[in-house]
Amino acid sequence: MKTTEFAVLGGTAAFAKMLPVGQLYFPSWDRYEAAMRGIFERRYYTNQGPLTQQLEERLQDYLGVKHAICVTNATIGLMMAAEAMELSGKVVMPSFTFIASAQSLSWTGIEPVFCDVDPATHQIDIGKIDALLDERVTGIMGVNLWGGACDPVALEKFSQARDLKLYFDSAHAFGCEVDNRKIASFGSLEVFSFHATKILSATEGGCLCTNDDVLAARLRNIRSSYGAGKPVPVVKTSNGRMSEAQAAIALLSLEDFPQNQQKNETLFRQYEEKLKHIPGVKLIKPAGVTFSNYQYVVCEIDANSFGLLRDELIAVLKAENVNARRYFYPGAHRSAGYRDKLHEYADRLPITDQLCATCIQLPIGAMVDSDAVNAICELIDKCQCNADALKSHFAGHGK
Ligand code: T4K
Predict the structure, then answer these.
(1) Which residue of 54, 93, 287, 395 is most buried, as measured by CB atoms within 10 A?
(2) Is the CB of 24 under 6 A from ligand 1?
């Protein structure tokens, strides 16, 4: 490839349309239409309708958990979780996560205490939690990242020994297994996201899973201000209800989960094979699981060996219509709402800071096929081979 062929240097983009990151599952129109017709015929749109009830039952069976409580998105699910678990004071969580994990605590008046992550797995570093504990810490939020897991069994032992409550943000982990047990019933509860970018899509949606009857009853009462199911006393209520239209898509997505997981896994293995020869590119494999949904392709870019900074690579790929993204940048601890406490974290989160500066997310999911993966990997390879020329371009543009 001549350097002038790079779109960023004036060539034609490799893809005619932007290739998105995210799963973006769409069922066939016929199946979607049939599901919507049912909603119209029943004239029942929301408030724990038949499709939502069916979805909850199917999820309970599939995940092997006593209660699956569907909600309108995972952010409100996490807010409800903190309220139902009666967390207070401070909660320890990783900073290397989507900002919604931390925001859910702030909404419930709880201070997040940010812990660093393991450089190999990107999951919370359990060995660093003890140093963060004081009398105000009431719980730990584990975050299962990238279709991997943050060692929930070790976190259960750790929190039990210290009398701390434990729950999980499992937004990335639908369908994943730890020692052949589905993620869903670790800790007091777990929260999944069914956003359109996730492997199980309700367009927007989510679900709280627990084996605890008391917690489940509290969650059902918090989910809806008008009351649903057996009333139990709760201080705060909300509207986290899932609509029938959301449940309809989620039911179809659940039916298609095996094919979608298989497709992701095949594409992930292809990325693995093609990227392993490129200096400075390290693909992160889902950690700590015996089964993954492979819904994310995340790499670390080592600028010294690759020749370009992560953000320079992103600029080249974007010009080619590959919507590669940096992930969790700049880290929750550096985001609005938390950065006033940055002095506390100045030296405490070196791995998080490093990953926020080096991680890149590449496309996978419904809009991506094997040819696209080949083309993306070839582009990355060519960027590495032509790093000097591209670097001069960026220097000329003051980037
Ligand atoms: N905890 C963790 C660890 C999370 O990652 C998340 C959410 C949560 C909690 C909270 O879950 P929710 O409350 O969202 O259920 C996405 C999602 O909005 C969000 O669900 C996700 N994590 C977060 C990390 O990423 P963006 O900013 O990446 O989405 P967006 O709009 O840029 O879309 C991604 C790509 O897909 C783009 O290439 C555009 C394309 N796209 C997107 C949508 C929605 C389409 O082509 N069609 C579409 O319909 O946020």
Answers:
(1) 93
(2) yes
Q: What is the DSSP string of 142-206?
A: EE--TT----HHHHHHHHHHTT-EEEEE-TT-TT-EETTEETTSSSSEEEEE--TTSSS--SS-E
pTM, two decimals, is: 0.96
Q: How many Cα neighbours within 13 Å face the side chain of 355?
A: 26
Q: H or E segment at 62?
A: helix 50-63
At residue 3, the pLDDT reads 65
Q: Give the count of beta carbons closer than 10 Å to the beta carbon of residue 391.
A: 16
Mean pLDDT of 82-110: 97
For 28-62, how does the pLDDT look when each residue is reduced to its tens digit (9 = 90+)? 999 999 999 999 999 999 999 999 999 999 999 99
Which residue's CA is minimally distant from atom 24 of ligand 1?
98
| Residue 24 CA, ligand 1 centroid: distance in Å | 10
List the one residue out of 235, 187, 242, 178 whose CA is nearest residue 209. 187
Once rounded to an integer, what is the mean pLDDT over residues 246-273?
A: 98
Other C-beta atoms lying within 10 Å of the C-beta of residue 235 = 7
Under the banding of pLDDT at 50, 70 and 90, the label for residue 1 is low
Distance 394 CA to ligand 1 centre (A): 29
For residue 204, which atom of ligand 1 is closest to its CA?
Answer: 15
73 ligand 1 Cβ < 6 A: yes
Cα–Cα distance for residue pair 385/360, rounded to 1 Å: 19
Cα 204 to middle of ligand 1, angstroms: 9
**Atom 18 (ligand 1): residue with closest C-alpha?**
195
Does the C-beta of 193 come closer than 6 Å to ligand 1? yes
Assess contact for 15 and 319: CB atoms under 8 A.
no
Cβ of 190 closer than 6 Å to ligand 1, yes or no, is no
20 lines ligand 1 (CB under 6 A): yes
